């Protein structure tokens, strides 16, 4: 028999996680604060617990997917977690993950913190993955069980590391979408078709530009190759004013773009004119 699992929280994501366990033939116990949520899980064979305590008692692996960290603590506080592995997939910060790990250890549980890199429709499919950090033995014990939801990616025993990876990827996503939304606002200011602009130009352009990321990463890990900057920061800082001026001229708020311009100017002032984009990252790490 496959490992019995419990899923606490049947929002959009928790429901998808429970469905994935059921599809992989895990005996699955579910609990949600508001009773009766996601009734399709009953038809699929889930056991519905009436309290969180009853749900936790049913399985060695307890997957938690609630709204925010405070919800996790208010739901689990005072319950018996002795001998359980808690995989908390609720979105949170590295500091929250470390606090919750300390709290879970006191409550007798092995703790894994997780960061879900997927939307509910992707759960159980090939593109979804979940970062895990925390108790290495608990990860090893349950890796195959966790794989029912999404490809598990263990990133270290410091419980904060999964949230760090998750938040870093979300930061990249929001930065990218912010830039894309600004581009669409600019194109739209002259009634350029959003569909044609996106399919013919925006997507291919972003895809081509993303190809430079591995080189930026290599520069960071190994130091920049002398004279390798094809697009030096001095040139980029000088051209950046055109982005701001065009936005203002077209009636588009430059607020999303302005901070990058300031960072470019700061890099040039600090003597990095001949380097390329990797030189911005130490400035960000120094707090800007
Ligand atoms: P939903 O808003 O759909 O569901 C929220 C869940 O939290 C519900 O089960 C709700 O219960 C429960 N909840 C809220 N407040 C409390 C409380 N005070 N006590 C007990 N339970 C409570 O959110 P999702 O399912 O989409 O998201 C869940 C987690 O997954 C979040 O941390 C989110 O950031 C993360 N996530 C979500 C993704 C997505 O695309 N949906 C993607 C990646 C991560 P009730 O039904 O009673 O309100």
Describe this structure in words.
The chain is an alpha/beta fold. The protein folds into 2 domains: 5-158, NAD(P)-binding Rossmann-like Domain (Rossmann fold, 3-Layer(aba) Sandwich), CATH 3.40.50; 165-285, N-(1-d-carboxylethyl)-l-norvaline Dehydrogenase, domain 2 (Orthogonal Bundle). The chain contains 12 helices and 8 strands. The chain has helices spanning 12-23, 40-43, 52-57, 69-76, 94-106, 136-146, 161-188, 194-210, 213-222, 233-249, 258-269, 280-285; strands at residues 5-8, 28-31, 47-48, 61-64, 85-88, 110-117, 129-134, 151-154. Strands 3-2-1-4-5-6-7-8 form an 8-stranded mixed beta sheet, with helices on both faces. Strand 5, helix 5 (94-106) and strand 6 (110-117) form a beta-alpha-beta unit. Helix 10 (233-249) packs antiparallel against helix 11. The longest helix has 28 residues, at 161-188. The chain starts with a strand and ends with a helix. The chain binds NADPH dihydro-nicotinamide-adenine-dinucleotide phosphate. Residues 9-14, 32-34, 37, 65-67, 71, 74-75, 90-91, 116, 119-120 line the site of NADPH dihydro-nicotinamide-adenine-dinucleotide phosphate (NDP).
Features:
288 residues, alpha/beta, Rossmann fold, N-(1-d-carboxylethyl)-l-norvaline Dehydrogenase, domain 2, 8-stranded mixed beta sheet, 12% strand, elongated, binds NADPH dihydro-nicotinamide-adenine-dinucleotide phosphate
């Amino acid at each position: 028999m496959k490992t019995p699992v419990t899923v606490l929280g049947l929002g959009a994501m928790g429901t998808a996680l429970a469905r994935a366990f059921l599809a992989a033939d895990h005996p699955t116990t579910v609990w949600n604060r508001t009773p009766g949520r996601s009734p399709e899980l009953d038809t699929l064979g889930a056991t519905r617990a009436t309290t969180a305590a009853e749900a936790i008692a049913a399985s060695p692996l307890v997957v938690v997917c609630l709204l925010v960290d405070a919800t996790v603590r208010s739901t689990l506080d005072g319950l018996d977690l002795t001998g359980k592995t808690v995989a908390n997939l609720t979105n949170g910060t590295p500091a929250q993950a470390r606090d919750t790990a300390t709290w879970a250890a006191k409550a007798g549980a092995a703790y894994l913190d997780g960061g879900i890199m997927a939307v509910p429709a992707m759960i159980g499919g090939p593109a979804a993955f979940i970062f895990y950090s925390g108790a290495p033995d608990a990860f090893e014990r349950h890796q195959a069980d966790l794989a029912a939801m999404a490809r598990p990616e263990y990133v270290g025993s410091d419980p904060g590391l999964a949230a760090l990876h998750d938040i870093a990827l979300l930061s990249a996503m929001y930065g990218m979408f912010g830039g894309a939304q600004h581009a669409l606002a600019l194109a739209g200011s002259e009634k350029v078709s959003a569909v044609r602009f996106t399919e013919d130009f925006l997507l291919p352009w972003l895809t081509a530009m993303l190809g430079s990321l591995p080189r930026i990463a290599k520069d960071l890990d190994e130091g920049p190759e002398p004279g390798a900057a094809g697009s030096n920061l001095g040139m980029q800082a000088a051209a950046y004013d055109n982005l701001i001026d065009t936005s203002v001229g077209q009636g588009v708020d430059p607020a999303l773009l302005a901070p990058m311009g300031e960072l470019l100017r700061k890099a040039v002032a600090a003597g990095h004119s001949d380097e390329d984009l990797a030189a911005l990252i130490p400035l960000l790490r120094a707090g800007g």
